[in-house]
Amino acid sequence: MTWTVGIDTGGTFTDVFAANTATGEIRHAKRPSTPDDPSRAILLAVEALEVEQGVALSELRHLAHGTTVGTNALIQRRGGRVAVVTTKGFRDLLEIGRQTRPRIFDLQTDVPAPLAARDVRFEVDERVLADGSVHRPLSPGELDGLADAIQASGAEVCAVCFLFSFLNPEHEIAVRDGLAARLPEVRFSVSSEVQPEFREFERLNTTVVNAYLQPVMERYIDRLADGLMRMAPNARVGVNQSSGGLMGTDLARAYPVRTALSGPAAGVVGAVHVARQVARPDVMTIDVGGTSADVAMIRDYAPSLTREREVAAFPIRLPMIDIDTIGAGGGSIAWFDRDGLLKVGPSSAGAVPGPACYGLGGTEPTVTDANLVLGRLGTSLVDGGLSMDQNRAEEALGIVASRLGWSVERSALSILDIVVSNMVRALRTLSVEKGYDPADFVLMPFGGAGPLHAREIAVELGMTEIVVPAAPGIVCAHGLLVAETREDFVRSRRVPADPSSMSVIAADVAELDQRIDDWMAGLGGVSGTMRRELTVDARYVGQNFELQVGLSRAAHGEPLEVPALDAFLDLFFKAHERAYGYANRSAPVEIVNTRLTGLVDGLSIAPEALKTQSAPPEPRAYRDVWFNQDGPMETAIHRRDDLGAGTVLTGPAIVEQLDTTIIIHPGDVATLDAAGNFIIRITP
Amino acid sequence: MTVLDPVRVEILGNALRSLTDETFVSLMKSAYSTNIKERKDHSTAILDRGCRLVAQTMASPVHIASMTGLARTLLEKHGGPDGTFPELRPGDIFVANDPHVAGGTHLPDITMVAPVFHEDRVVAFVCNIAHHADIGGMAPGSMSGGMTEIYQEGLRVPMVRLFEAGALRQDILDILLLNARVPQEREGDYYAQIAAIGLGVRRLGEIIAKFGIETVEAGAADIIKRTGERFRGAIADLPDGVYTFEDVLDDDGCGTEDIRIALRAEIAGDRIRFDFSGTDPQMTGNLNVTLNATMASACFALQALIDPDCPNNQGLLDAVEIITEPGTVVDAIAPAAVAARAHTCQRIIDVVFGALAPAAPEASIGACNGANSTLVFSGTDPRTGEPYVYLETLGGGLGGRATKDGKDGVQVNMTNTSNLPVEAIEIEYPLLVETYGLVEDSGGAGRWRGGMGIRRTVRPLGHTTLFNGVGERFRHEPWGVFGGKPGAPGRFVLREDGGQEAVLAPKPPTQPLRSDQTVTVETPGAGGYGAPSERNETSRLEDAASGKFSDPYMTRHYSR
Hints:
heterodimer; A: alpha+beta; six-stranded mixed β-sheet; 16 helices; B: alpha+beta
């Protein structure tokens, strides 16, 4: 008997889920999170699996987690001391960036100060040209003085980034090796290894962020791995990447920048898993927490990826799940702007003091207070913890109500309408960016507050179906149980798309395939099916935007097919049409990058089937709930634990469970499937 | 008259902003050219049937000027009695660019506008604008210096129908395409603008169906009214008084030097009047500005000072009164050349900042680099035998602020476009970028120092290229405020590999540059804020340790 474990480190609790790989049985343990050292709570929760849940830790084979250690270190500026080495003449590149300001009307706000100040940025006299040839050779004599300067700067990590190193990394590698020999205590991040693609500022910045996070991530991984080695010696640890696949701890130590969106990406990976369970390939997700909402898009069971985004206002260029975040959550505060219009968010009451109804000192009206006075939330949560104070909520909402001259309930409905319109705007923009109509998608809300607002969002976007996962609060952890292990290899080389370029790609593929073999050999102990996917980044000559074009896939050990030119061009034109609405079939095309992705399937776990429900469920209670301004309706309140597979609820109804509340509007029909997911059909 | 509550208005406003966001993204995604796709040099908007701006998503405030300018032209040309438009049909799309007869600001900015109908009457307009990489004329890119009449600057398009009742007028499109240097790219960009118009018309129809026409019309009016009240409230917070300021442009590249921009700003209660009387007559060169671009610049500066978060719609624009003398630099009339108007717009903003510094000391800043320092290289790529043109504008210093130093090396004022990566330049063009960094000692000293300019050195590889450039604040340095010192002016320097060097004119005309020569641009820094004697020690130590400022500079400005 073996177990696989998914870990979700939340702001308040660290949840650990163990799945029996044979039976699908799930065991759960939780411990309060330990933000100063998240590994402590993880180790305690894993220990609790054995002590409280009877899972023999020697039977753990696989342990996967998303981590916010890197993201938080970046936000709080708690990374290492970094020195930077660049090509002569480019010392200030890190500081100038792309010369833009965050907001055009705002004279006071700047992009964040660089993670390495000017006095720890050094230049080396070397130069590689756009064809990869060496223009100015490296002089080894420079390295002694450079090493002394880096030593004197007190740097723990050194980031090295030269121009055109993605074409010819020799100078970067030589400088790294030369410095490493002289500075054994210093770690290195080299741009041709961290992100070997063109655009020097984004590559440099990604490399510097990586360097900055290295010491933090090393300490974290070491503590976690040491502890687990003692407790569960047979378990292999996987860390979720921003792109949604797992990597081993060695890679996480070397490339911590890849975890920049690890946490939210795990949620989308979990959503993909749920999408498969319910056989809905096209899904838009909205993960609503206390302060913000993350929205993402899943097409044909695959999350939409982006090549670049900002994390803590630093541009990072790496494959990442395309997640948009807006300031709309349960704690979002309602306020009147200077023009007298009612706004909700982006500022939030957060966890402390929290919404007024928490009774922890918050006095400003929030979305959660509005849900409470409308009866959509109960006054106590399912496990009895955290009782909510209706009077305080009404008092806070009174501020809004008296200014509007309306009842508290009407004001509360207005606050919900506005927060929903903010969420709708984010989802609409995301779908237009990707070239899709949201009406063709199913909405999947999760997080504590997602299912509270899903219906209004879906109706606005013309959607007719909502899928609420079995445990909306633990979608992340569940996703990690089944996540695949993934590594992207890239060769950056610009060639025109002509018959000869296909053989250049074939040569690149052979080289990348060798690296995939090495990677797969290094994985050890992984039992899933291995496969590779070949994609190229291509564009019209003169465009500055590349499109990723999937060319072929093959199992490990089998040859990858490189298509003929015509077939490749056809794939490119179709992708262009999808993304941009047109394709010019006579314009010249060029290839910029060749990518090979190695993938190892995650474990497939059959969900533990719910018992079937034959009799209609008996509500735990009834209460008055406001669905619109017409007045309250008496509404059945169910507990999720009471409901079995096949349960059909017709709204108005509310289902409460430990980590969320599901609203079924009057006339809508919700069906509980065998895996515990609610599928809600909207009746317009 | 429908009376609306502030919740309904907010939700409607959100739907309208969503419309302009979506059309903005749609235009960007389907455009063909780098300038729109990568640099996002385009904007979208909704106007009410009175052609008043209701909502927008914009790359640059100067785009607002063109879109509202076009709408005014439409109103004048096709407006009937009682706010009706008897000649317009569903499916009409107008196109225009001309600054003198169609409300534009310079020719490469192509504007499109279409009426939105509800039950046989026009209820609103959707429009967009995109900066096209070329619109013909005497120089590739339609932006070079040396042009003295609008006829040299490219194709002038008055307001004409590109679509009539839903049908493309191919003859008009043929004229547009024949007059541009890369017609295929232009065609792609025109279709992107047309598609964005179509999406906007469709979405507004959905919004009207959902909210009802009365709510949409009354709501749009309410949004404008509320913004006007809000912005006038912010004006009222400024102390009443008359504030004057003037600044001088270096030259127009065609022999006119020291071109004066004068401003008298008068604040009384919630009213503000910017009077530019006394500004020099329009110049021979192409740095002239039409009235609507002057309005956009002045409104930008005021908003940045007093209410950066204010929604940008007609309510804001109408709160500001502008007085100019026709035929001057800030109110140019036909046939003035205007292609390089951006430099002057930047300076108008500096002038407003300078005038209002005593009225809003906490929000004010020292003069910024005040320019869009431009380098243009053209020639034949020896690697391919193909012709190329490479144009780039560089930022510089941002002025010192009330609580912190100015930002170094950044685009300022109304410009905020990304630069092209050096690796992209060298892949595309036979050029070598030898340095790209900050100019030492270029930030003006002060309690909070001004930002630093940018230095870039370029060498042609394996051939001789043709170089020209446009610099401003290359003779007149960016001033400081409240005792802050001026920043360094910019300069162009030509160097021979032997070591000989020559400083070029601020607007060097086209000249050959060999592969054993380099040209360096040093863009201007920015002025400081407050007296240098008040600069704290930590900041002074950092100035020296960072190597951004030399020992002689530190001694000159900070020794007591």
